[in-house]
């Protein structure tokens, strides 16, 4: 174990593999730590959120306390721009010309699951790949939230919501919409229903309102009620919409106001009020389980250094304020790390690009601790920044009494109660890591994204230092090119199966014939 006074850079001595691991092959490697990196500021924040295209990997982090982790040098790789047609093919995969390498599918089309299975090597995972031949506009098209409902993975893209079967990737159902989807909540209701928001007009011209709501049962694909957003005030200013589902209540924030609706029939429940003589206006909403958080911008003066942010928890059904927390003057709410307990980022109104903190509240909404993670080189939401909804803050997580932060070259843990830094690793290799879950409170399961020269993998890492890696799933070479395209995408872990999708897909025909896959999934296979 490393010196407790120097937990950040010093890896522990080589150890035996994690005992009692239920998975297959072991994998370790030399220690790969480098000197501290100069902290890179997060992308510039907004004053009035709008969509941005992330430039780094989206990372969902679940880690556990204790120990220091090291990464194997056999996975060393330099970062590369994720443009498939310019990327060299991974060893064993098809060549850019479309001539397949031995055992690999052609790149002139998305390989079928059958082709992937035929190309699979004995030590590789089983995998399926989903294609979607939807004719997309020649622009960057957002791939919306990934929902896991029953035995399906469901997602909206352009004018369609599609469900894929988790076992084999087969399309189960799809719903065609008259216009493109512009907003989705992060999670559905407990019984699998969701409301998608789509544009008023079918064109992609400016001024197209995001003001149509449509309820869909994600278990069956059956459509329910649909309606136009209520528009008190300025009818022609619903371009940016944020939504959240809390139990059976839908909350919608836009244009400095917020309204809740019954999920059952779309009927209006109540308007979320402004506060402080109408100077604190609703800005965004976050849901999950039966909790509802509402953030506000309190615009007291033209001088932004005198303004501040506020967050309230409301009873979703009644609108009663359970508690409210005001940020200090000159600071605003950033992104939500955890709903329970409430953990979020804040940023300085006068330096939105680089000055940010993490704040923890107790169950009554009272301040517990605030700390600065920049000293260890962490970027806001793993470098992805904000843009879009406050939920989620990618590259972060809370569990086992820890706040976990990640990035393209590091992960680390802070004490939830005190904000004290506990341990972490930093690598020179700029690996893109997606820790997926804690394992027995002693190790963590991590997805390492594919690069331009090799497929990804899922591995187990224990708390006893270098040399304890255990490969769980070695992803197939045959799907590496398409996995690389998803390097900053959505991830979900379901009963040991990893599901991946992009966050954006291009409709530019110049990218083809190396087309983007719609969804990928990997699972441990039989030897």
Automatic annotation (TrEMBL):
Compositional bias (Low complexity) spans? 87-105
Q: What is this protein called?
A: PQQ-like beta-propeller repeat protein
- Gene3D superfamilies, sorted: 2.40.10.480, YVTN repeat-like/Quinoprotein amine dehydrogenase
Any stretches that span the bilayer, and where are they?
52-71
| InterPro entries, A to Z | PQQ_rpt_dom, Quinoprotein_ADH-like_sf, WD40/YVTN_repeat-like_dom_sf
Q: Does the keyword Transmembrane apply?
A: yes
Keywords, comma-separated and alphabetical: Membrane, Transmembrane, Transmembrane helix
**Domain Pyrrolo-quinoline quinone repeat: residue ranges:** 116-273
